[in-house]
Amino acid sequence: MAKRLANVKTRNQVGMDYVISCLNIITPYGKKELKGLVPFRRGEESLLKKELLRVAAMADIYRSYKEFCDNIERAMMLMKDCIFTIERAKKNVLTVVELFELKSLLLAMRALDQAVEDGSGELKELYPKEFLLEDTEELLNALDPRGDRINTFYIYDEFSPRLGNLRKEKREIEIRARSLRKAESIKLKEEKGISLTPKFDLSVSKSESFRIKEMETVGELVKIDEDYMCVTFALRDSGEVCDLLRRMDLLDADIDEEEMTVRVELSKRVARCERNLLENCRRIGSLDMTYAKAVHAVLHHLTMPEIVDDHMLEFENGRQLQVEDVLRRKERDYCPVSISLKQGVTCITGANMGGKTVSLKLVGLVAIMAQYGFFVPAENAQVGLSNFIQMLIGDSQSIERGLSSFGSEMEELKEILDNSEDRSLLLIDEIASGTNPKEGAALCKSLVEYLMKKPYISLITTHFDNVTDVSGVVNMQVAGLAGADFTKLKKELRYANRRERIELIGKYMDYRLIRISGTSDVPKDALNIAGMLGVYSEIIDKAKEYL
């Protein structure tokens, strides 16, 4: 069994679960496709490229052919999960409801095919051939002998000449029996002044006890019901009517038998089409999933990544979608981030609030989305497939096991290192920040040296100095507040409340990553931020003396 590309925690932390939640999957087959979604692995680059091209084609269709997209969405919304029914038909007789659902599915498939067939030549060229359905018209004709193509189902007379004859005879007997009853009802009114309903019955209120006794003496009537309010009488059937009713009972049995024969034959026809039907369900699921990816790509302005052989990850102006959506709701702009990662260690340095963790999550999101066949929230993205992707974010206490945040972090680090292999992508956030600074810095630097020897892409955020002194380590620094207009910022902060002050600092923060040549200390924006948020100047000034 292949190792998971990324565990549940990592997928959630980088925002992949959020992306999945944004997909508009329409059919039950698409939902099964989503549930069974697996990443493309090393060696499957060609398959991944084909999937991305299918997404690109559907995205072009979504942009240019609204009516077509409306039609396929309507068709997909009509589709119920009939897989169990299709498989059941091999050994069982399908019910009328099951046959109706199958007919509905076939009509929806037909509508899907028709939408493609009615499209322009350009649309037909764009539409992925993998989504064209197997021919099921013969089965649809069998379930719809009238050819009216209406989304209803009944065991029509057209299914069987014998069935039609039996029903005709029953209708004639019903007409004869009703005619005899009507004649008796008219006679009863003429002779005794008793009027019956069209159903040939009469209800008498219990407050009219004398009338109840009177009705009980009428030989043409029989008491059929009684409740707390009234007593109901019905016309007593004559011998001829009773004979007709007995004949109808026999006909009902024959009709039921013939309807069963029809259902048996239709079930056999469904069973013979099992392969085509199941294949169509699979293709519909793939279409639904790919279409959802395409719509998501268009709505969120995503880009098709270039899949390369080398283990690397590079993109321009990347956006962490979940954070971007939060900022959009607050009517704030997202500051895109660009980065280039190859085998080795890259450290992101910068003060708190500088967006280091968000950049880490962005890298993981781009890598995982690409490997699952999604377009990515970046420009000019190049991705080489990883065998293992894991993210470690500190400050996560394990209360159940009685571990501190540092202890839990070390356990998780060991697990990551144990499971890492060739072409791993490791994303480690503020390692050892939960212990004393001296030991934490030593541990972080030692980890960097260890990872430099491994065939991994390692991206580490840190606030420790001298970690990037290790030979070969790439140092990316958050621009932070280096270019901020502090005079203007302080003026705005003066009249802001606590929450507004934090958001204002975020507005002035530059989250772009800048590559640093040589060694460099971590930027000291923390004291500036602390001062702007109201920490006493006496404390800030003293802290600066210790730097």
Written description of the protein model:
- This protein has three domains: 140 residues, no CATH class; 81 residues, no CATH class; 193 residues, Rossmann fold.
- It is α/β, with parallel strands linked by helices and 547 residues long.
- Strand 10, helix 17 and strand 11 form a beta-alpha-beta unit.
- Strands 9-10-11-7-12-13 form a six-stranded mixed sheet, sandwiched between helices. Strands 4-8-5-6 form a four-stranded mixed sheet.
- The radius of gyration is 37 Å and the shape is elongated.
- 53% of the residues lie in helices and 14% in strands.
List keywords for this structure.
six-stranded mixed sheet; four-stranded mixed sheet; elongated; Rossmann fold; 3 domains; 547 residues; 13 strands
Strand content: 5-15%
Rounded mean pLDDT score: 88
Uncertain segments are 396-402
Class inferred from helices and paired strands: alpha/beta
Shape: elongated
Percent helix range: 40-55%
Task: Give the beta-strand count.
Answer: 13
N- to C-terminal separation?
Answer: 52 Å
